[in-house]
Amino acid sequence: MSGHSKWANIQHRKKAQDAKRGKLFTRLIREIVVAARAGGSDLDANSTLRTAVDKAKSQSVPKDAIDRAVKRGAGELDGSDYEEIRYEGYGPAGIAFIVDCLSDNRNRTVAEVRHAFTKAGGNLGQTGSVAYMFSNLGVLLYSPEHDEDSIIEAALEAGAEDVIVADDGSIEVLTSPEEYLQVKQAMTDAGLEPEESDLTMRASTNTLLDADDGARVVSLIDMLERSDDVQEVYFNAEIPEQAYE
Asked: What gap in Å lies between CA 200 and CA 211, rounded to an integer?
């Protein structure tokens, strides 16, 4: 199955995240705290925690910070109590957005998210207003330098649901949320460790934007991601590379 170019967009987003690394660390630590609180500190028994820890390690979060976050979530250390909150809405060009937050102050968080949408010319919607457009899945991303046949063969043998080869030659291996860790481990064991991997939400169809609308959507994403309370931003747009410039 073919898809639009992914690799350039991923790299642009990654550079933007690197520029905000302090806030990225904060979000990753909060994710670990919440996962440990919900399912305990045992990585083997808590797949959500394992995913959060793996993500933090991939972004070079220090090991002692990860360990403290696990202990805080498990109740072994004192710390803030975070609440998971999801907002849905529409941004520029009618693009659907889902914004996942972890917050210790709901009023502050909704004010920041609403302000970002309003400033971008969008609006928050009711719960369920756009969620039906998205599905949960695991994604393993490989750069264009990887051999397509090897990836496809290993992925299907590991139990992946689909493999998408983009126009630029980058490859995405898609899994169910339940099989994500198993498939990722199998691919790594086969010598095919992904450059990027995560559990995410993806829209069933995306809207291809021009550079101007794409830049407006990127601006909204940046405004949302400036908030320490915002963990993830999902949207149903294909953004051209020029929009990131």
From this structure: 25
Domain extent at residue 49: 7-73
Please choose, from the candidates 79, 91, 93, 94, the residue with its C-alpha nearest in 3D space to the C-alpha of residue 37: 79
In a domain, 49, yes or no: yes
Residue 16 inside a domain? The answer is: yes
Using the 8-state DSSP alphabet, how is residue 94 labeled?
Answer: G
Per-residue pLDDT, averaged over 31-48, amounts to 92
When pLDDT is averaged across residues 30-37 and rounded to a whole number, the result is 91
134/17 Cα distance (integer angstroms): 23
**Residue 149 three-state SS:** helix
Three-state DSSP class for residue 25: helix
Rounded average pLDDT over 148-162: 95
How many helices (H) does the chain have, and how many strands (E)?
Answer: 8, 11
Band the pLDDT of 242: cuts 50, 70, 90. Answer: confident
CATH of the domain at 29: 1.10.10.200
63 domain-assigned? yes
Report the chain's mean pLDDT, rounded to a whole number: 88
Mean pLDDT for 194-209 is 91
Over residues 136-157, the mean pLDDT reads 93
Closest C-alpha to 210, from 236, 241, 233 = 241
CB 134 within 8 A of CB 236: yes
DSSP H stretches of helix in the chain = 7-19, 21-39, 47-58, 63-73, 106-119, 148-158, 180-189, 211-225
Q: What share of the chain is helix, strand, coil (3-state, %, to 5)?
A: 45, 25, 30
